[in-house]
Design goal:
D-amino Acid Aminotransferase, Chain A, domain 1; four-stranded antiparallel beta sheet; 18 strands; about 25% strand; single chain; nine-stranded antiparallel beta sheet; Dna Ligase, domain 1; 13 helices
């Protein structure tokens, strides 16, 4: 089937009226939309010539057509037959889905990041939207997962207006004055924070209505637990583990995943994860072709603690599928997001060119994924988000990065640790 990939930020409209977002929500949504540019680029490689990729208008402004041509050539050299330039229509970032609906390409299907309110002009399916709201809600999962036999950290659900109640104060005190607080909203930890007191919790949700629900959850000991994520493919007849990944942080911020043979999946883990897939399917999250369900969880030996599910395309699914597509699945692979200063962008492309997967003979190889054309201004200088995979020796990559790229390109990589707890 030919497919039109139509992806931009969707999460906020699952639970909130887009016309009534708070200032922080608007800021978070805009920043998340900027990130979606590099998802659009990776679809060029993951798709096929009959497919279409809907892209931001910014990709049509110099120097981005030239940069898209460069990464397309890199995809080809790795053995990929990508989506061609004439199948990449441009749409305004602020009117993305309505613009696509007015200019649908001639394909058999449309693929969305998730079913949401903002893309309802494309799916026109109120029931699928209702299911997506439930299975992508942290509140819904906190209330229903334990009854399905899913192991979760100790959790309470309350509202902003009841944060002063004894239950909340006792919960924080019982867990050593350090717990996780979660609210509905965007992915990428924009709605999750550590709080050490009721006042800190109140400050974090100050701009929301008193009726807004939130979660306080036991903070797991990261000297004992390792944070993981997995993708399941859910059909009416089976639930399949598509991949498993270690979540990586740099300076407390999610940057990517460790993928490959070093990542552990025991029979005990598998049993719990498949049951989470059964839970999602019981909520109506299923289709004959298979649908993706991501799970965030922690492991300590065979012990598993599930913290949330993401019933959509996940950030780790893209690099995992690209790794499989180019034949690097037996390598230790680090997929990560980083920043490249404008004056270093062509140097970044040249670095990937020199160390490209299937062509390099060195201790590591680069698999390009994508980039966003939306500038991130740091100290008055434009930087751009890039996404890449390092296959092989990550320390050798870091040494090469320092000597060949220096300051201004992929510097966050130096902070990434591959150590398991």
């Amino acid at each position: 089937m030919s497919t039109a990939y139509a992806v931009t930020v969707d999460d906020m409209s699952l639970h909130f009226d887009p016309a009534k977002l708070t200032p922080k929500q608007r800021k978070d949504e805009a920043e998340s939309a900027d990130l979606m540019g590099f998802l659009q680029v990776v679809y060029i490689g993951l798709g096929k010539p009959a497919d279409y990729v809907m892209m931001y208008e910014e990709f049509g402004v110099a120097p981005w057509p030239e940069r898209l041509a460069a990464i397309t050539e890199l995809f080809k050299r790795m053995g990929i037959d990508p989506v061609p330039p004439e199948h990449r229509p441009l749409h305004p970032k602020t009117d993305f889905y309505p613009s696509i609906a007015r200019n649908l390409p001639p394909t058999d299907s449309i693929t969305l990041y998730m079913t949401s309110g903002t893309n309802s002009v494309l799916h026109n399916d109120p029931e699928a939207y209702r299911v997506s709201q439930n299975v992508n809600s942290k509140i819904h999962f906190a209330r229903n997962a334990p009854g399905f036999g899913i192991p979760v950290p100790e959790t309470i659900v309350l509202t902003k207006g009841t944060l002063d109640a004894a239950e909340a104060r006792d919960f924080i005190a019982r867990h050593g004055n350090k717990v996780m607080m979660k609210i509905l909203g965007l992915a990428g930890a924009r709605n999750v924070t550590t709080v050490t007191s009721i006042q800190e919790a109140k400050d974090y949700v100050a701009e929301y209505e008193d009726s807004m629900e939130l979660i306080l959850q036991q903070r797991l000991d990261l000297t004992r637990f390792t944070e993981m994520t997995v993708d399941l493919r859910v059909t009416p007849d089976e639930i399949v583990i598509a991949n498993v990944r270690k979540i990586m942080f740099a300076d407390g911020v999610w940057v990517g995943n460790l993928i490959g043979p070093d990542v552990i999946l025991t029979d005990a883990h598998r049993e719990v994860l498949l049951n989470v897939g059964a839970y999602a399917r019981a909520q109506g999250f299923v289709c004959p072709e298979g649908i993706n369900c991501g799970i965030d969880y922690f492991i300590a030996g065979d012990e598993v603690m599930v913290t949330e599910i993401n019933c959509r395309w996940t950030g780790g699914l893209f690099p995992t599928e690209m790794i499989r597509k180019v034949g690097a699945q037996n390598e230790s692979c680090v997929a990560f997001v980083d920043l490249v200063r404008e004056d270093k962008f062509n140097d970044w492309l040249d670095f990937i060119d020199r160390h490209l997967w299937k062509e390099t003979k060195g201790p590591f190889a680069m698999i390009p994924l994508g980039f966003s054309p939306i500038p991130q201004v740091i100290n008055g200088v434009d930087h751009f988000l890039t996404w890449q995979v390092v296959a092989g020796d990550f320390d050798a990559f870091k040494d090469a990065r320092r000597s060949e790229l220096g300051d201004g390109a992929l510097m966050r990589a130096d902070s990434i640790s591959l150590e398991f707890s």
